[in-house]
Amino acid sequence: MPPTVGTTRAQDGVEIAFDHGGIGDPTLVFVHGWAGNRHHWDQQWDTFSTAHRVVRIDLASHGESGTERQQWTTKSFAADVVAVIDTLALQRVILIGHSLGGSVVVAAATALGDRLVSVIGVDTWSALGSSASPEDTESSILLPEMRTDYRTGAARFVKLMCGPTASPALVEQITSEVIAIPPHIAVGVLEGVSQGGRSELTDGLRSLAVPVSAISSETFRPKDNTALASFGITNVTMRGTGHYLMLERPDEFNAELALAIARATI
Asked: What DSSP string describes 217-256?
């Protein structure tokens, strides 16, 4: 069955688009990363909607959601996720977030109480164990370059994220999606979500009393396994993959995601 498309309103009134379908408990709620959209999870739909209800969200200013937001923060994106969960009256959820979405689902998790079953991060949480300064972090994501020449800087950042293993077609797809976003939104999101900093993420992870897993790429910001383990995170690294591993190697990714879900629901 194809997904059913719906909308709801965020706390600030921005319309949030999502789709949902499938049947089974718990519900899997997928959240994309920076400059992404809910269709980054297309390769997961058929696999997981046969045994779970599946929800995929376009965060504000992404995909088919409204673009009126003026201040983009991790907390405001987390409120988008909670608004969709409340609209659908979901009772047991596993939150799955890619990249920026990993920080978003951690922030959303704290508002769900006993509705939360697990949190799964996809190539995210690289800040754990890092001592990089805010200036170094901005430089690592080419933010100064994007402020000056968005298209050039964004295209270079996509190649950095995809790494040497992604197909030219995938690099082209992600590049076209990223440069299609208005520069003031794309840059504003990166600036806004960085304001909470590392402490917001670490405090959120420490507050979680549910299983937390991570599926990481090998070539984009290799994760500090010691730091992840110190937060009780079970991490697996998919060898020979870049940042968009769920699009690059969907079958292998789906197998790892199924294992993470199984660990959380035993």
From this structure: ESSSS---HHHHHHTTEEEEEETT--TTHHHHSHHHHHHH
**pLDDT tens for residues 88-140?**
999 999 999 999 999 999 999 989 999 999 999 999 998 887 766 767 777 87
pLDDT in the model for residue 222: 78
- The per-residue pLDDT of the chain, averaged, comes to 94
- How many domains are there within the chain? 1
Read off the tokens for 233: 């995170």
What does the pLDDT read at residue 138? 75
Q: For residue 40, is it within any domain? A: yes
pLDDT in tens, 188-220: 999 888 776 678 899 999 999 999 999 999 999
Query: What's the token pair of residue 114?
Result: 């006993």
The residue whose two tokens read 């840059």 is: 187
SS3 category, 194: helix
100-109 vs 197-207: helix crossing angle, rounded to 10: 50
The predicted pLDDT at position 164 comes to 95
Q: Is 252 within a domain? A: yes
Is 44 within 8 Å of 257 (Cβ atoms)? yes
CA distances to 14, 64, 140, 183 from 180, rounded to whole Å, are: 20, 13, 22, 8
Contacts of 103 (CB under 8 A, 6+ apart): 74, 97, 124, 125, 193, 196, 200, 201, 204
Structural domain boundaries enclosing 228: 4-130+197-265
Q: Are 83 and 59 in contact (CB under 8 A)?
A: no
Q: Which CATH number goes with the domain that contains 43?
A: 3.40.50.1820
